[in-house]
Amino acid sequence: MAKLNEQEFQAYLKQVRELAEGPFEEIQKEVEVTNKFPQEFFDLSIKNNLYRFSLPEQYGGWGMDELQILQVQEEFSRGPGGMRMHLHYAADMNWRILDDFGNKELKDEYMSQFADKSVFTCFALTEETGGTGADLHTTAVKDGDDYILNGEKFLISHTDCCEFAYVFAVTDPNADKDKRLSGFFVPVNTPGYEIVPMPHMMGCRGAGHAGLKFTNMRLNKKYLLGEEGDGLKIAMHSLSVSRAHIGISNLGMAQRMLEMTIARAKDRVTFGKPLVARQAIQQSIADMGTEIHACRLMVYDFAKDFEAGKDIEMKAAMCKLHSINTVKLVSDYMLEIFGGIGYFEDCVYGPVERLYRDCRAMWLEEGPRTVQRLTASRKLIANGGIIEIN
């Protein structure tokens, strides 16, 4: 498919926003109860090219640059949180890990199938008994041309709608911590692969969260990503890029919250004056807008560094860190200004209550704020505090 020109791109952004705030919101009423996406959601996402838009042209995508990808993500992030989580992953780690680290055989067979969701993946790193880095316990033991995997993963998204899982396991327990792990592209129909159900979440319903269990699961070596011992490098690089995508997700939610808050403050009259005329409310709205504007500039600056091939680890961590602070402040002010009607599930101004719940997942998704601070501080210290901007 041909690249979009600027006019077509702006029209596509409008199309995605209307989809997120229209049909997706209607579907979400069912998802809130069932905790599962109906086929209609996937069909609409395919029809509206939400699995295709971020792919490189050689795989049937539109060849968008990183800023354009992020702008599309901001629009669908205005909709239901679980759908945002699914589509955020689809636009980034879902295909990018195989593209960056898969061998030619795997890429030739599967990369073009991401465009219509014939192939979808999940990212299986986190464990209940270990962390999300060098201290994992799942093992992959070499046996001829195969690896035998045993272990369990925890809090894994999209387990109910994927054909493959990116699985990270210990291949050399005696190696340096940076070389203990390897990454694998695992077909979910492999014998020994098991999905372990988990309770419903507070928000982001429908995103298929579960545990995974591997019992003597035999996997051919062709499914190894990169080289043996590259697992931590693959995981950390992939998460670094995705953290900026978390930043734009928070931005999309926060922007919609601000718009709904202003609409409510204009309508709500107390003691003869609309709330928006009161200085205390104006100050809150100013704080909301300032944080949102700063967040947008940070994410756009990251995108320029990414396209230039610069080291993006620090800025990606900062994008996520600041965006969590932003959506926290904005969601708290939103609920405060809405008052009691914002605490109910149905609200004429939009999904105030659900957005408040959905955004709380961002404290935890792909690493909490403490992790982002550590990542950012290492680079800041090494650079002597210098931060280059575009």
Fold blueprint:
Layout: H1 6-21, H2 23-34, H3 39-47, H4 66-76, H5 81-90, H6 93-101, H7 104-110, E1 121-124, E2 139-143, E3 146-156, E4 164-170, E5 181-187, E6 193-197, E7 210-220, E8 224-225, H8 231-267, E9 269-270, E10 273-274, H9 279-307, H10 313-338, H11 352-359, H12 369-382
Parallel strand pairs: 1-4
Antiparallel strand pairs: 2-3, 3-7, 4-5, 5-8, 6-7, 9-10
Write up this protein.
The chain is α+β, with helices and mostly antiparallel strands and 390 residues long. It has 3 domains: 6-114, Acyl-CoA dehydrogenase/oxidase, N-terminal domain (Butyryl-Coa Dehydrogenase, subunit A, domain 1), CATH 1.10.540; 121-229, Butyryl-CoA Dehydrogenase, subunit A, domain 2, CATH 2.40.110.10; 233-382, Butyryl-CoA Dehydrogenase, subunit A, domain 3. The chain contains 12 helices and 10 strands. The longest helix has 37 residues, at 231-267. The chain is globular. The model has no long low-confidence stretch (mean pLDDT 94).
| E-strand count | 10
Helix percent reads: 40-55%
Order of helices and strands: HHHHHHHEEEEEEEEHEEHHHH
CATH superfamily of the largest domain: Butyryl-CoA Dehydrogenase, subunit A, domain 3
CATH class of the largest domain: Mainly Alpha
Number of helices: 12
- Give the helix/strand class: alpha+beta
Strand order of the largest sheet: 1-4-5-8
